[in-house]
Amino acid sequence: MKMLLPWELLILLSLKECLANTRHGPVFTQEPSDSIFPLSTDDKQVFINCKAKGNPPPHYWKVDGRDINTESEPNYSLVEGNLLINNPHVINHGGVYQCIATNTFGTVVSREAKVQFALQNFNRKSRNMVSVREGQAVVLLCGPPPHYGIKYSWVFNGQRSFLQQDARRFISQRTGNLYIAKVEASDEGNYTCAVRNMMTNATVFSSPTPVVVRRDVMGEYEPKIEVQFPDTLHVSKGLSVKLECFALGPVPSISWRRADGNPLPGKIKINHSSGVLEIPYFRPEDAGVYECVAENSRGRNVARGQLIFHVEHLHWVQTLKDAHMAIDANLQWECKAIGKPSPAYRWLKNGQGRIHVEAGRLTISRISLLDSGMYQCVAENEHGAVYASSELKVVG
């Protein structure tokens, strides 16, 4: 190995020092993600990650579009750029957070991240009595508190075990409501909705809803589909999708089919008593129109909806590179992302959206020193947004 001469060593050390001290705009190394926090007596802090590098060092944060002032808002503090929320409150501290990294060269904004809290208590207000004829259908509303990541159950007359679903009784895991297709005299009593947080296993209970069954018997009628899946549902590859279908009236049978006549995939799970069809590990061949058929002695009814294979989340196929440009030069930046549906584009300069662009292409003619700064291309569709950033340095 060749030994360096003193003057060669001096030049090498100078170059290293120069590179280490290169001044540049902020660049994210870690961005915040959507988060659901279990809110219990033990949870005193919420930590939201965000880190950026830059020289000079950058600093940060926003919630729901407004700047967070850590000096005047004691619940918020910064830990090496990450945001710490002490003693979080569901109403005051849930929201959409965005990390802002800025220094003398410009500003970039991170992707937006929702911060939600898993479960609150029910309103303890007494619930009105429900009067229903024997043989009639009834729907009992759960009216859950704000929540994320939960499971619904119902308790009948304070029993220790939860109410069992069958062909006559159904609990929707979308709304929490309890559906009884045909009321019997033995259904009279008090019904309590129970909501369980799947993260902490904590359960909260509603006030009881009294149900009184009148003895004037209701006549029979054709099934009315009260619980049904959406008309259109986009499903990503590999996910498990559950379709709910339940009908009111003299207890109907529920069956499932594909509208194109093809047989249902063998992997499909159907719970005939609870009216739920589950398709695990969704694949392109699972896409199509599905139909739920409810039938009793008085007639039949059909609900249908289309499952669409969602190819992929947004991702970049062409991003940006930092540019060093001379005054009066022309610049054209272009970014491209793919996803379904096709994304729309917008551009930000130093975190502000005041730039005119066409189809993801930014053009600046006859650059001036005022054009220096941090630029971001944002591609977004109904499923989310992705951000790409770059720095423009203008030299005389």
From TrEMBL:
GO cellular component: axon; plasma membrane
InterPro entries, A to Z: Ig-like_dom (IPR007110), Ig-like_dom_sf (IPR036179), Ig-like_fold (IPR013783), Ig_I-set (IPR013098), Ig_sub (IPR003599), Ig_sub2 (IPR003598)
Gene3D superfamilies: Immunoglobulins
Keyword vocabulary terms for this entry: Cell adhesion, Cell membrane, Disulfide bond, Glycoprotein, Immunoglobulin domain, Lipoprotein, Membrane, Repeat, Signal
Recorded GO MF terms: cell-cell adhesion mediator activity
Annotated Ig-like domain residues: 32-116, 132-205, 223-303, 335-393
Keyword Lipoprotein among record annotations: yes
Keyword rRNA processing: no
Subcellular location: Cell membrane
Stretch forming the signal peptide: 1-20
Matching PROSITE patterns: IG_LIKE
GO terms (BP aspect): axon guidance; brain development
PANTHER family assigned to the protein according to its UniProt record, in alphabetical order: CONTACTIN 3B-RELATED, PROTEIN SIDEKICK
Quaternary structure note: Interacts with PTPRG.
Protein family (similarity comment): Belongs to the immunoglobulin superfamily. Contactin family.
Protein name: Ig-like domain-containing protein
Native organism taxonomy: Eukaryota, Metazoa, Chordata, Craniata, Vertebrata
